[in-house]
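FAQ

Q: What does a record look like?
A: Structure on top, sequence underneath. For example:
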């Protein structure tokens, strides 16, 4: 039994994409070519690796075990090949990033535009998501999150300064209903809250008083997964909202929103690019890390 490395690589792409079509698009081949490669691999091994239906693709128990064991080695091999292919220091290829939707400075445009200008042979695929998952298992080169939620075994590079969360409201709202003096008063106020997903409880608003951290479960008039909608509703006087200061900065500068309860809003470490420790870092990722360090410096 000697399955070739190419077949294992194709299988890993199918596992990551959960789709024959998406895997084929990444490789630039036909769907049938991917299907035939997987079929030959299964025949060589003698066991089904992928469960196919007309609407979905899922790994069998054997497929999950093979992917878990083979994927790390395949990533190491890809990194080694990319390093050899780029001995002259030219970064190239698709760089895949999973970025928090509230990483405003990273997603603002200029930082990534400058990186692409410096590295014309790199293409970026940025997935903006607040879902929590293993970036390695999902096939991403790196992620951007708040430092406090990044696993300890990851390498992290700062992409922002310190951050803080703010409660904000429109001048009209504050004129009509008054300004709360303490976060405990928020329980009786109209609030606009955020939730990571529809099936997840709304985010509890976090504050600090005399060095003691505490959270408040506000009675949300509106909850949404979209920060832009939160800002629009708060600016229109629909209630008090809460989020990253950077997200509100433009609206505050325009006078559309007013920060409140600032004495209870401490600063904390900001956003970091994070990635697994590898002996052979892909040149495309190394180029991004070096770019971020130059910008931060």
């Amino acid at each position: 039994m000697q399955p070739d490395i190419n077949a294992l690589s194709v299988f890993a792409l199918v596992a990551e994409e959960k789709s024959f079509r998406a895997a084929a698009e990444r490789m630039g081949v036909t769907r049938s070519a991917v299907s035939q490669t997987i079929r030959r691999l299964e025949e060589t091994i003698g066991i089904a690796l992928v469960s196919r239906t007309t609407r979905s693709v899922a790994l069998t128990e054997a497929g999950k075990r093979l992917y878990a064991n083979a994927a790390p080695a395949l990533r190491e091999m890809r990194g080694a090949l990319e390093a050899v292919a780029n001995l002259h220091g030219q970064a190239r290829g698709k760089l895949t990033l999973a970025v928090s939707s509230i990483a405003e400075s990273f997603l603002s445009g200029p930082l990534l535009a400058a990186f692409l200008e410096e590295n014309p042979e790199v293409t970026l695929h940025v997935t903006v998501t607040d879902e929590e998952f293993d970036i390695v298992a999902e096939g991403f080169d790196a992620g951007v999150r708040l430092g406090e939620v990044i696993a300890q075994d990851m390498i992290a590079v700062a992409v922002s300064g310190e951050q803080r969360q703010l409660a904000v409201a429109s001048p009209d709202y504050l004129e009509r209903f008054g300004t709360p003096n303490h976060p405990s008063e928020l329980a009786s106020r109209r609030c606009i809250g955020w939730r990571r997903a529809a099936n997840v409880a709304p985010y509890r608003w976090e504050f600090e008083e005399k060095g003691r951290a505490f959270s408040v479960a506000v009675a949300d008039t509106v909850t949404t997964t979209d920060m832009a909608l939160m800002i629009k509703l708060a600016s229109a006087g629909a209630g008090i909202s809460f989020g990253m200061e950077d997200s509100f900065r433009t609206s505050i500068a325009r006078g559309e929103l007013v920060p409140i309860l600032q004495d209870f809003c401490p600063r904390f470490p900001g956003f970091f690019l994070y990635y697994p420790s590898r002996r052979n870092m892909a040149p495309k990722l190394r180029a991004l890390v070096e770019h971020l360090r130059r910008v931060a410096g």
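Q: Is there anything notable about this one?
A: The chain has three domains: 5-85, 93-162+270-296, 163-268.
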